[in-house]
Amino acid sequence: MPVITTIEDLRRIYHRRVPKMFYDYCETGSWTEQTFRENTTDFADIRLRQRVAVDMEGRSTATQMIGQDVAMPVALAPVGLTGMQCADGEIKAARAAEKFGVPFTLSTMSICSIEDVAANTTKPFWFQLYVMRDQDYVADILQRAKDANCSALVLTLDLQILGQRHKDLKNGLSAPPKLTLPTMLNLATKWGWGLEMLGTKRRFFGNIVGHAKGVTDASSLVDWTAEQFDPRLDWDKVRRLKEQWGGKLILKGILDAEDARRAADVGADAIIVSNHGGRQLDGAVSAIRALPEIVRAVGDRVEVHFDSGIRSGQDVLKALAMGAKGTYIGRAYIYGLGAMGEAGVTKSLEVIHKELDLTMALCGRKSIAGLTPDILRIPAGFEGKWA
Predict the structure, then answer these.
(1) What's the domain range around 248?
(2) What pLDDT digit, counting tens, does each position of 95-105 carry?
(3) Per-residue three-class SS string for the chain
C-alpha cells in the first residue's frame, strides 16, 4: 500500500482503479473546462501569512454549520453516480462522514437510495434536491427525506438546464454502463471494481427507479431524466419549496451577489457559493473569486458556505478566511472512495483535516473563528477588474 499524504495521491489510485466513463464523469468540466481548471488554480494565487511565537497548544477545528456541530467545517458535497465509483458508494461515504463528524449530503441522482443510506447510518444526513417537472415526484421525495430524518435540504439552483460535458457524451455515460466495445475493453482492465459491483444489487438510480411514474428500468430512466429537470424554477418556487420542506434549507449554486441577496430574502439558512465544480456555465468566474463579493453582499443575513475547487486543507482555510462558514468537498472524497472505498473517504478527510490544522497553526491561529482575512495575502484585483 503506498503512503498517502495528499488528495492527489488518492486521485492517482482512483484513476487506475475506476472505469474511464466514471473517472471522466468526476474529473471533467463543461465545454472548454476553463472554469473547472480555474476553480483550483485560482487558489494558488492566494498566499498565507506565517506567524510565529504564538501559543499553539489546544488547537481545535471544531465549529458549526447551520447550527450542527462538526469536527471541521467540511461537508461531503452531493455527487451523482457515487455508487458507480465504488459499490454502495453513498453508504460508504455516509458512514465515513458520520464517524469523522462531518455532514454527508446525498444527491437526488445517487445510486443508493435515501432509504439505503438511512438504514446504514445512525445520524441524520443532508439531502440534495434537483427540482423536477413532476410535482408528485418532488413531493414524494421530500416526504421520503423527512421520513429518513434528513436534517437539511440542499436545493441546487444551477442545474435547471444541463451543461454540456463533452467527455460524458463521448463515453456514453450511463448507470449501469452500456456494454459497447470500448466500454467492455476498459471494464476488462478494472477487475477489482467489477467484482465489487457484482456483489451489490444497487446499480441504478435508487431515488428514481421504482419511485417516478413509469420508471422501472434503465431505458425508461434515460427518457425520464432527459425531460424532467425543471427549467421553470424561480424564486417563487424556491420559496414554496422552503415552506413545503419546513426544515433547514441550503441553496446551492450561488455565484452572483444579487442572487445571494435574493436567497437571503427567501429565508435560506445558508447559501453555497458554487459553480457546480465547473460543470455548468463554462467561462464563469471561479468560486473562490466570487466568494468575497457575496460575503459582503449578505453580511450576517445568511450563512455563507463554499464549494468548487477544494483539494486541500489549505484551500479550506483560504475559503474560511475569506468569509465562508463552511466548505464542501466533492471530487476530493470521490477520489478516496474510488481508490479505497470507505477507508479512502476517511483518508481524504484525514488529509484535509491535518492540512487545515497545521496550516492554521503556522498562521498563528488556534480556532476556526480566528481564520480572518488578515492571515491571507490576496493579490490586487483578485476578484477581477471588469468593464
Answers:
(1) 7-364
(2) 999 999 999 99
(3) CCCCCCHHHHHHHHHHHCCHHHHHHHCCCCCCCHHHHHHHHHHHHCEECCCCCCCCCCCCCCEEECCEEECCCEEECCCCCHHHHCCCHHHHHHHHHHHHCCCEEECCCCCCCHHHHHHCCCCCCEEEECCECCHHHHHHHHHHHHHCCCCEEEEECCCCCCCCCHHHHHHCCCCCCCCCHHHHHHHCCCHHHHHHHHCCCCCCCCCCCCCCCCCCCHHHHHHHHHHHECCCCCHHHHHHHHHHHCCCEEEEEECCHHHHHHHHHCCCCEEEECCHHHCCCCCCCCHHHHHHHHHHHHCCCCEEEECCCCCCHHHHHHHHHCCCCEEEECHHHHHHHHHHCHHHHHHHHHHHHHHHHHHHHHCCCCCHHHCCHHHEECCCCCCCCCC
